């Protein structure tokens, strides 16, 4: 059980298979990278506590499988989530299209006021880029999400994603905005264009 001064925050990662969701979680939690990680089956769970502006935050992280056959299970994991990290692979246009579908699903079925981050992973492969950074950034801004490009392999911006989520959480008592009537697509303080990959 968490200490009374520690805030538990449920985070779900959504995105196409092979975009590196598990690698992002593993890099954040264990500070390690496994080049040959197996595809997630259903979902996996990890947690990590960190200090953000003097507040202890314990992230309860649900990493969902990207394969289509597991798509119907996703609502079990994003239900009650305070934040969602929507991941695509910067070298695969199709993975960005899948991300857009996840956003539509969250807009329809997700918790009100959920904090969103759009994450373009594998920025260490910038020479193979298929998804322009400007377009992805604009898309994130339009839906009130924060935007980052990350590399789980090179440990670029991974911690920043979770720090950004912590900074945008509603005050305790309104966890995840679940009781608030917040428009998912509304412009928020996030999505200000920061978080580009220096790779």
Short description:
It contains five helices and six strands; from the N terminus they run E-H-E-E-H-E-H-E-H-E-H. With 199 residues, it is of the alpha/beta class.
Ordered list of secondary-structure elements with their pairings:
Blueprint: E1 6-15, H1 21-30, E2 43-52, E3 55-64, H2 74-78, E4 83-89, H3 93-109, E5 115-121, H4 133-142, E6 146-149, H5 158-168
Parallel strand pairs: 1-3, 1-4, 4-5, 5-6
Antiparallel strand pairs: 2-3
Entry keywords:
Rossmann fold; six-stranded mixed beta sheet; 5 helices; 199 residues; alpha/beta
Overview of the molecule:
This protein is an alpha/beta fold. The protein has a single domain, classed as 3-Layer(aba) Sandwich (Rossmann fold). It has 5 helices and 6 strands, in the order βαββαβαβαβα. A 6-stranded mixed β-sheet has the order 2-3-1-4-5-6, sandwiched between helices. A hairpin with a 2-residue loop joins strand 2 and strand 3. It is globular.
């Amino acid at each position: 059980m968490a200490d009374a001064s520690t805030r538990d925050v449920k985070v779900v990662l959504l995105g196409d298979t092979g975009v590196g969701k598990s690698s992002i979680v593993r890099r954040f939690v264990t500070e390690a990278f496994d080049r040959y990680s197996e595809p997630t089956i259903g979902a996996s769970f990890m947690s990590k506590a960190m200090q953000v502006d003097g507040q202890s935050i314990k992230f309860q992280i649900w990493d969902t499988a990207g394969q289509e056959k597991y798509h119907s299970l996703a609502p079990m994991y994003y239900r009650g989530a305070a934040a969602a990290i929507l991941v695509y692979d910067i070298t695969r246009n199709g993975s960005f299209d899948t991300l857009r579908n996840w956003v539509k699903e969250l807009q329809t079925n997700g918790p009100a006021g959920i904090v969103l981050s759009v994450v373009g992973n594998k920025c260490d492969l910038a020479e193979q880029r298929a998804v322009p950074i400007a377009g992805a950034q604009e898309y994130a801004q339009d839906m009130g999400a924060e935007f980052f490009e990350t590399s789980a392999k090179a440990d670029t911006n991974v911690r920043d994603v979770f720090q950004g989520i912590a900074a945008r959480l509603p005050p305790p008592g309104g966890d995840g905005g679940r009781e608030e009537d917040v428009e998912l697509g509304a412009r928020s303080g996030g999505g200000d264009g920061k978080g580009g990959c220096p790779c």
